[in-house]
Amino acid sequence: MNENNLHTIAFYNLENLFDTLNDPHILDDDFTEDGRLNWTEERYENKIHKLAMAISKIGKEGNEAPPVVIGLAEVENKKVLNDLVNAGPLVKYAYNFAHFNSPDERGIDTALLYRKEYFEFIDAEPIPLLVYNEGHIRDRTRDILYVIGKLNNETVHIFVNHWPSRRQGAEETSYKRITAANRVTARIDQIKKEEENPRLIIMGDFNDDPNSPSIKEHLLQPDLYNPMETLLIPLERGSLTHKANWNLFDQIMISTNFFDVSNSNLEFLKADILDIHFLEEWNEKYKGFPFRTYVGKKYLGGYSDHFPVYILLKEK
Q: How far, in Å, are 40, 141, 144, 175, 254 from residue 164 at the CA level?
């Protein structure tokens, strides 16, 4: 048990965590030593260490320990996950992980790290996301990772998402993210048929803000709560920036039974963004933005183009 009876649940988009090896089955050529980005072993090891350090700090201003569970986006494979959990800042916490290779053309997947001391893993599966471009050509996007386990002896159902991007325009691609929302909702409905009042945690990079139709109209139900809704301040705060404007694509939603202290051993306390100084860009022009690894082809050597987000749960 954590000394202060708090558990941090987090999500972090790691911005292209690729190893340096060329995988002929995915479009990872840029992230090789001979590739366009000159992705060397030294740069890879630097990123692994920085990300491990960042993860070890998530939630620490209210908790003494790093997250018991953290969802990840943009990881290439099990090798990078093994390297991450065995990096110096994290190795003592004995993280394990759930991960499946997804059909994404670039090979970037979702994953879930969990501390075996606090989270009892039961099962995991990828939920395919079938979305199509013009001409009924499949958009080979990331699967949704579904993990079931026990936290503080209570069964929890966790969904880790990385929904289709806005690259062709927010409005033009919104139908893809609505499809993703409906896919998660359908699976939750199935769980509810098998388990009364299940405890749900839905996290990810949704490529939409809390007020977007995919979240507000298609994912949230009366028994789901989005604590991130109050955190987005478009001109001042979010988890990532686009053209100098803040977005909060990274979110964690929970079922409302985390507020029912009479029937739960876990109580929701707060949600926040880890936008502390060492994760921020120091250049005056971009000061306060996430300190990213690359801008285009230019290597900056930072952490990620996203800030981590997290919630705190308290043991009764």
A: 28, 6, 11, 10, 22
Distance from C-alpha of 276 to C-alpha of 306, rounded to nearest angstrom: 12
Assess contact for 164 and 102: CB atoms under 8 A: no
Distance, in Å, from the CA atom of 161 to the CA atom of 11, rounded to the nearest integer, reads 10
pLDDT tens for 218-254 read 999 999 999 999 898 877 899 999 888 899 999 999 9
Digit-coded pLDDT (tens) for 277-312: 999 998 888 899 999 999 999 999 999 999 999 999
Residue 57 CB burial class (10 angstroms; 0-12, 13-18, ≥19): middle
CB 43 within 8 A of CB 17: no
Alpha carbon separation from 311 to 157, 180, 258 (Å, rounded):
16, 23, 12
Contact (CB, 8 A) for 55 and 67: yes
